[in-house]
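Per your request, structure below.
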């Protein structure tokens, strides 16, 4: 069955992952629009790739658009193209991503960050199956399967008015929710094995496995950065580990000591001795933990573009490298080309 092949693309044996693979196997053969939602680092693009790979449009164009990386002024031109002279700098006609994806599939990554003006124009494309390049009055018919991903809960965003409700319903014909890694801990050993094998093929290392005690620590940790964070930790450990296994002492201290965030709502009236005294109250450890989470959140919001991340954090760009090294945060390979933008 199709889902059996899908399972080879998505790592894990948990019931949640099996259900997602089953759903991908069913929807891959349709033309329906798919919305993939989940926290940052849960593997949304992996799911989108699996849908395309097992679809009837496999082998036809698969165009990926990072909505978070495009400004409002560039978005329309990038998606729909422009004609020569339509604005300053438009020296020739240019096809947009939708036209390039004709007869194929387009991935709208992090669509929750798309400006409202762009959302209105996208809605027309989904309704009419046609685009109008910037500066042109001519419509162009397109046949494109749309897959959208987001770490924003679009239904909530629609209720707040930050995302068009009509576009949300157009996008969510089929919705796949990816669980965070902390809700599928049984998949961590399989993911670790996969990353070790992957890195073994790309780097000189003696590491071929993980010590049981180290694996227990990896399973207990909550992984706020999800699979992306786990991948970075394993890669970093393999770089600095000189033995044949990853041992506990080589893991970051926040994992060894299992420093999980303690979040208390201002409205809660829980006695402090019941909520906090069982937690690590060492100020330095807590500050390190929150510092790391803050940096990961900023990197995600800035799409791992270092200059934007530094601006969000209010620090010099040169200092960001220091903090990333301090907290064992590595750039994902597919983000490297934009890391210095």
């Amino acid at each position: 069955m199709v889902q059996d092949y899908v399972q080879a693309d998505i790592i894990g044996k948990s019931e949640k992952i099996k259900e997602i693979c089953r759903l991908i196997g069913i929807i891959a053969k349709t033309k329906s629009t798919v919305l993939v939602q989940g926290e940052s680092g849960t593997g949304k693009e992996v799911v989108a790739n699996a849908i395309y790979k097992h679809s009837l449009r496999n082998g036809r164009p698969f165009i990926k658009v990072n909505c978070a990386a495009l400004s409002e002024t560039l978005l329309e031109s990038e998606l729909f193209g422009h004609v020569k002279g339509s604005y300053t700098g438009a020296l020739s006609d240019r096809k947009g991503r939708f036209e390039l994806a004709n007869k194929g599939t387009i991935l709208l990554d992090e669509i929750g960050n798309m400006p409202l003006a762009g959302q209105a124009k996208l809605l027309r494309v989904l309704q009419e199956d046609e685009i109008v390049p910037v500066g042109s009055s001519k419509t162009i018919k397109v046949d494109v399967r749309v897959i959208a991903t987001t770490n924003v809960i679009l239904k909530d965003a629609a209720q707040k008015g930050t995302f068009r409700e009509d576009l949300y319903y157009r996008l969510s014909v089929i919705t796949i929710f990816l669980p965070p890694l902390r809700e599928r801990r049984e998949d961590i050993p399989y993911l670790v094995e996969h990353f070790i094998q992957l890195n073994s093929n790309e780097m000189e290392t003696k590491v071929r496995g993980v010590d049981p005690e180290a694996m227990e620590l990896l399973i207990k940790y909550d992984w706020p950065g999800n699979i992306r964070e786990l991948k970075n930790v394993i890669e970093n450990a393999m770089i600095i580990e000189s033995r044949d296994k990853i041992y506990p002492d080589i893991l970051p201290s926040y994992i060894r000591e299992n420093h999980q965030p303690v979040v208390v709502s201002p409205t809660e009236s829980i006695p402090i001795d019941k909520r906090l005294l069982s937690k690590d109250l060492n100020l330095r450890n807590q500050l390190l933990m929150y510092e790391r989470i803050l940096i990961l959140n900023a990197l995600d919001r800035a799409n791992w573009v270092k200059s934007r991340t530094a601006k969000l954090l209010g620090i010099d760009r040169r200092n960001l490298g220091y903090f990333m090294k301090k907290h064992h945060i590595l750039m994902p390979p597919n983000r490297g080309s934009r890391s210095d933008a």
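The radius of gyration is 22 Å.

Regards,
D.
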